[in-house]
Amino acid sequence: TGIKPGGRIETDRLPTEVRKRAMEAVDSFGGRVTIGDVSSKAGLKLNEAQNALQALAADTGGFLEVSDEGDVLYVFSKDYRSKLVAKSFRLKIEPLLEKSKSVAEYVIRVSFGTALIASIVIVYTTIIALLSSRSDEDNRGRRGRSFDSGFSLNFYPTDLFWFWDPYYYRRRQRRTVGTNFIESVFSFVFGDGDPNEGIEEERWKLIGQYITSNGGVVTAEELAPYLDVPPTDETMVDESYILPVLLRFDGRPDVDEEGNILYRFPSLQRTAASQRSGRKEYVGKRWAEFVGGVDKFFKEKQWQFSKTKNTETAMVIGLGGLNLFGVIILGTMLK
């Protein structure tokens, strides 16, 4: 059945993150998916996945297919992305807006460091100019003396290219070796970014993929490594921590013949891949073996504000102290 697009762009009504994650899931399955495929792969709620697929199908001329088992499949052409961009003005300007936002955030980040370095240059240039206006004899005496503390600043003009790099944060997170001085200033003042950014999205992706890999039936203990399980009395069985998963993926509890509580997710059992294999209950396991399995637990990364070494941190603090000292001296000289 072909879905005829209406007069308005339905995809523009979707939240940006929902649309992006749904489209990535569609691409990963080759353009032939069920609601359960998108929900588990993208970590979206079932209603979010359904709304996204309906909007994408309406705007790109997608088709619905009904399998012999009664499952509804959404089928998209290979060029559905280009069709969507051609119709949506929002998608055309979205990359430009995102780039403009990144540039604006970058300008705000570097303004402090720029002002600090400029302040030091201006302050000490002014101090030198004032001292130079004194007697020539004093100036020659000062120029004749030298002092070697054994301390090296290691500042090079090429460091300024790092300082004015809009992709500093991306480059900073990829670097594992030592940093130069300008990088240390950035890291000390602004930090290295949150390593757990977008972690909830990854959590739901792992949970959805794990449920699918087990044929849509799991126990609470299997999902516990992915969830925040509150401490409870060992004598009590409390599986309330799985309720958010049931709500998100439309699951329901079930009891097997041995009296064990199982959680069944019918929507995640309906996959486009099962139509090819003909045996839906084994699709998840075969998929997990094909990709090497799903991560067995969910782990947050330790957030360290700045990864600069102690020596680099001391240099940055010294730079700030040097600026403060220069301002005090200059203020005294101008009185």
List keywords for this structure.
membrane; disordered N terminus; Iron-sulfur cluster biosynthesis family protein; 16 helices; 6 strands; At5g03900-like; mainly alpha; three-stranded antiparallel beta sheet; transmembrane helix; elongated; transmembrane; 335 residues
Describe the secondary-structure layout.
Layout: H1 16-28, E1 32-33, H2 35-42, H3 46-60, E2 63-66, E3 72-75, H4 80-87, H5 89-132, H6 136-144, H7 159-163, H8 168-174, H9 181-190, H10 199-213, E4 217-218, H11 220-223, H12 243-249, E5 252-255, E6 261-264, H13 266-269, H14 272-277, H15 283-291, H16 310-334
Give a description of the structure.
This protein has 16 helices and six strands. It has 335 residues and is mainly alpha-helical. Strands 1-3-2 form a three-stranded antiparallel β-sheet. A hairpin with a 5-residue loop joins strand 5 (252-255) and strand 6.
Structural class: mainly alpha
Instruction: Record the strand order, biggest sheet.
Output: 1-3-2
Molecular shape: elongated
Q: Output the helix-strand order.
A: HEHHEEHHHHHHHEHHEEHHHH
The largest sheet is: 3 strands, antiparallel
Count of beta strands: 6
> Between the first and last Cα atoms, what is the distance in angstroms?
85 Å
Give the overall pLDDT as a whole number: 76
**What percent of residues adopt helix (DSSP H or I)?**
55-70%
Helix count, DSSP H or I runs of 4 or more residues: 16
pLDDT < 50 stretches: 1-6, 146-164, 276-293
Strand content: 5-15%
The radius of gyration is 30 Å
Transmembrane segments: 106-131, 314-334
InterPro entries: At5g03900-like
Protein name: Iron-sulfur cluster biosynthesis family protein
Keywords: Membrane, Transmembrane, Transmembrane helix
